[in-house]
Write a structure and sequence with these properties.
The protein is mainly beta and 269 residues long. It is built from two helices and 23 strands. The protein has helices at 22-25, 263-267, and strands at 5-6, 16-20, 31-37, 42-46, 50-58, 61-65, 69-73, 87-90, 95-100, 104-112, 120-122, 128-132, 139-145, 155-161, 166-167, 172-173, 186-193, 200-205, 212-217, 222-225, 232-233, 240-247, 256-257. The strands form five sheets. A seven-stranded antiparallel β-sheet has the order 1-20-17-22-14-13-12, with no helix packed on it. A six-stranded antiparallel β-sheet has the order 2-3-10-5-8-11. A hairpin with a 6-residue loop joins strand 12 and strand 13 (139-145). The protein starts with a strand and ends with a helix.
């Protein structure tokens, strides 16, 4: 298996099924965790020097921080309902508790924080929905924590790619600290596949091909993107969801397309 794939594991006692830390990923900014909680189960954490965004992938939950409490938040009972989720932003120097009101799947996205912003609820109505691409590159984007919404480091989107379509396409990279043209951003892809036994294909490659991997991705896998271009394909018959968590030294999404494939932007496919 590729070293860029972090597969989901059997559910641990605390409900954790996947965990990425800066140390395990051998990078400096992004952490990512997923918890599969049964009704009534709780997770409690201190944020310490990290800011956190808790995303209800499906199910309902109560969420508390030091000074806030939101009860029975949630909307979708299945990721593939394709409606925006509820989320909670928690700054560094805070703490949070998530209690499952129903069986729930919860993502926890982490990156360095400065304590600049207060904890807040992000409701579905706050999340901008975009349709990006056309034809075989068409996909649905939910902007959970985009650049124009307050956070110290985190950038978070979720993407629905219909079966037979390509996503994160044309291929682009954001691994150079070269503003205003390009920002250095680490990124995780948390993949879910609607149909049983399905798969997706993701390539991660650099210009000099020092990194050049093409991966078969299973339901629940996390793909690490430390550098390079990173397109994704959903094979016919298998609808694809992924949750992107990005962070770097500057919180801005500036990228460079692969020059070999940039013509697709102007001529279409």
């Amino acid at each position: 298996m590729s070293k860029l794939i972090v597969p989901s594991q059997q559910r641990k006692q605390d409900g954790n099924v996947v965990k990425v830390t800066p140390a395990s990923a051998n990078w400096g900014y992004v952490g990512f965790e997923v918890y599969s909680l049964e009704k009534g189960e709780k997770i409690r954490m201190e944020t310490k020097d990290q800011e956190v965004c808790i995303i209800l992938l499906h199910g309902y939950a109560n969420v508390k921080t030091k000074q806030n409490e939101w009860n029975k938040i949630g909307q979708r009972m299945n990721i593939f309902e394709e409606i925006p989720p509820y989320a909670v932003y928690v700054p560094s120097g805070d703490e949070y508790e998530v209690e499952a009101v129903t069986d729930a799947e919860v993502a926890v996205c982490l990156a360095p924080g400065k304590g600049t912003y207060k904890a807040r609820l992000i409701e579905p109505k706050d999340i901008r929905v975009d349709m990006r691409g056309s034809g075989k590159t068409l996909r649905r984007i939910h902007n959970i924590l985009p650049e124009d919404q307050p956070a110290d480091s985190l950038l978070i989107v979720e993407v629905f790619t219909p079966n037979g379509n390509w996503s994160s396409y044309p291929p682009h990279r954001h691994d150079q600290d070269n503003l205003p043209n390009e920002a250095y951003l680490e990124e995780t892809y948390y993949h879910r596949i609607k149909q049983p036994n399905g798969f997706a294909v993701q390539r991660v490659y650099s210009d000099d091909r020092s990194l050049n991997e093409t991966m078969i991705v299973q339901d629940g896998d996390v793909v690490l993107v430390p550098k390079g271009y990173h397109p994704v394909a959903a094979p016919p018959g298998y609808d694809l969801y992924y949750l992107n968590t990005m962070a770097g030294p500057v919180r801005t999404w500036k990228f460079t397309n692969d020059a070999d494939h940039e013509w697709i932007m102007t001529q279409g496919v």
